[in-house]
Amino acid sequence: MWGDFSDESNEEKKRKTGSSRLIILLVVLVILMSTIFGLVMYSQVPGESQKENQISDKSIKLSTPQFAHKIKETNQATVCMTDKCIISASRIISSMNSSVDPCHDFYRFACGGDIDSQQISERGSTSAMGELEELVEHRVRKIFDEGISASMPETVKQAIDYYEKCIDEGTQNENGTLSMFVLLELMGLPRVKTNYSPQNKPWPEVLIQGDKITGKTPFFSIEIEQKNGSSYLTFKREMIKTKTGGKKLFNFYSSLVKIAADYHDNEAWMLVDELQKLTDGQNVTLNETRLDWKKFLTSFLEDSFFKFDLEKDKILVRSPSRAKELFLMLNSKKNINKIDLFTWFFYYYSMAPYTKTEFRDKYFEMDPIARLNGPMPTDLKTRCTKLACDLFPDAINYEYLSRYFDEERKQKTERMVDDIHQAFIQLITDLDWMDEQTKRLALDKLDAVKPNIGYPEWLFNPAVLDERNIFLKDVKEDWLNMNLKAYIAATKKFDLSLNYASLGAIIGHKQFMNCFDNIDQTIDKNGEQKNWFSNETMGKFDEHVQCMIDQYSQFHLLEFGANLNGAQTIGENMADNGGLREALIVYDWFKNRQTHIDDGTEILPDPEPYLPGLTGYSHKQLFFLGFANMWCQNESLFSLFSLRLKDKHSPSRNRVLGTLANNKEFAEAWKCPVGSKMNPVDKCIAC
User: Fold this and answer.
1) Cα(70)–Cα(217) distance, rounded to whole angstroms?
2) How many beta carbons lie within 10 A of that of residue 193, not counting itself?
3) Is the torsion defined by CA of 619, 624, 627, 629 positive or negative?
4) Each residue of 364-412: pLDDT tens digit?
5) CA dihedral defined by 212, 214, 220, 225, rounded to 10 degrees?
6) I need a surface site. Which of 335, 426, 661, 663 has the fewest CB within 10 A?
7) CATH classification (class only), 178-354
8) pTM of the shown model
9) CA angle, 86 as apex, 23 and 634 as ends, to 5°?
10) 609-659 pLDDT, tens per residue?
């Protein structure tokens, strides 16, 4: 079976939570940039600041003596000495521990050098891809710090205005809580709530006004969702996310959490009148403490792009029995004071972080959801850059692409993605466990996958950019109101039917492997739930999936004294394995194009240059070194623990070891004996 790698101690590396199909994109991207290893390259833009040079030059110094015995004499003319090659070679060399047998533990061989000495950044991890993120963040920060110019589209100006108000803590503290108190009173709530302070409106009326002002409601949420191009409303119980003080408030909060705890209930489509009957129950009289759903939804939809017929259209109600139980509690007269107190606390807690900075800091210190997501960046400008990018992604994409994007690189990437698409066709065709009918359906589904590369053309049209972001036009005023309006805009005014594939991405690529993993193999080419595998193929597929589950479940995580959950990470593990196989096929095609003419005749010697200090390794060996180097990572224990609770990716170390141990070409390139840890007799190949 697979090798036991659990004898590692400190050098057992941490997880990478990014998309596993970045293996495909980054490895092949490096190939087309005339290098052999899957590393991120840094190219300087004329006039860039000293900070960018520092980011790029972090590992310029080569440390070749530790593995000098690996180097052989090579013609100097075949060694690439450009800045990119030197930086990339330096990254690989400084990460390596060449005293480790690559056939015993390739992750330690590729990443066991200086990674333990790397300082963990505020994001909770340090890695090669993390340094690229730092470079992008630095450039984006530069956009914000340079301020608004008259020629910018309105959406970009608005994003920078948001950023400038975010970093202006002096004005935030000077304005204080006055805006929040005014909004509480508009909802019908007192400024300060006690057991004796009167509430001007019953809680159903407060919820209508509270939703209008903040876009949020306690107890439940109404959301606009989309599937297969159709938008619809959903009702679900709200998992309460706050810590509370006071015995009465805590006890009521505990009872709400108990109701919200079960996520395994069913769901049902209901007319508004049917939802009303469900939440009314049998003994509710028509009084002011009854939530009138038509009245609530009429107000809710006034701010929304979504068209909904209150008489004919249906709402998807998640967990109807829990909804009934929740409103049984809300409709009880004995709970009125507790409901009023909790409602006041909910809206106070929702707005307070956007008033004084001490409230903001306390929120991130005590809120369990905020803490689970990791600490907010302590640097004010870093934090505000992140907030502005999350809210105005189109604007930042526009400005970033205008300054930094290379059209030639886009064209090369388009070629890469096409090659990856063709490589996946070959993978499917060569599967020996899939019958011909299922292969045809798989190829039909693959043909339906449409890549999005670079950026949509409308992004460079300022008028279209502003029109597409018209839903953000009201995000103005002071810091509190900007954030409340931003939330409403994002949840109600953004038309989900718009193609927002460009958001948050400079280079987008379709994740081919995930279209055929253990979950998406039940989704057909139209995105409908349909099992298109034949019974025979399904049986064989399940065997291959179980093989990989068992393999990854044998990896031991010393930090937690437990093994990896192979079932939890199986989908991403399959994508990692299949993605590397795709990249290898494309790499071989690329090499063939370099040295052959169309009829297959070899016409040239291999023109690929060697890397300085790494001439003792073949190009194929460097390919696998580059793959592993992408995942060299140092993460905090907090980050690891938080991600382990919810992440479907394996830790970085296990992504490398599991994927390479299943790859025959890796074993051949590194001449690993059959039965060694990196070349086990039994290999798991699911796709």
Assistant:
1) 64
2) 20
3) negative
4) 777 665 555 556 677 899 889 988 988 898 899 899 988 887 777 777 7
5) 80
6) 426
7) mainly alpha
8) 0.64
9) 50
10) 888 888 889 889 988 998 898 888 876 666 566 556 667 888 888 999 999
Q: What confidence tens digit (pLDDT) does each residue in 15-30 have?
A: 333 333 332 333 333 3
Q: How far apart are CA 510 and CA 441, in angstroms?
A: 19
Decide the pairing of beta strands 267-271 and 314-318: antiparallel
Contact (CB, 8 A) for 280 and 331:
yes
- String of DSSP letters for 447-459: HH-----S--GGG
Phi/psi of residue 317, each to 5°? -95, 115
pLDDT digits (tens, 9 = 90+) for 51-99: 444 433 333 333 333 433 333 334 444 888 888 888 888 888 888 898 9
Integer Cα distance of 226 and 495 in angstroms? 10
CA-to-CA dists, residue 638 to 124, 125, 380, 641, angstroms: 8, 10, 22, 5
In the chain, the amino acid numbered 591 is K
Q: For position 310, what pLDDT does the model report?
A: 92
Structure tokens of 311? 């008489």
Half-sphere exposure of 115 (CA within 13 A, CB side): 34
Average pLDDT over residues 660-686: 94
130: tokens are 């993390």
Domain 22-139+399-453+509-670 has CATH 3.40.50.620: no
Distance CA 262, CA 321 (A): 10
Pairing verdict, β 220-227 and 230-237 = antiparallel
- Give the Cα separation of 138 and 387 in Å (integer): 15
Distance CA 325, CA 255 (A): 11
**Alpha-carbon distances, residue 444 vs 421, 447, 449, 495, 525 (angstroms):** 12, 5, 9, 30, 7
Domain ranges in the chain are 22-139+399-453+509-670, 178-354
Rounded CA-CA distance 82/88 in Å is: 10
- Amino acid type, 687: C
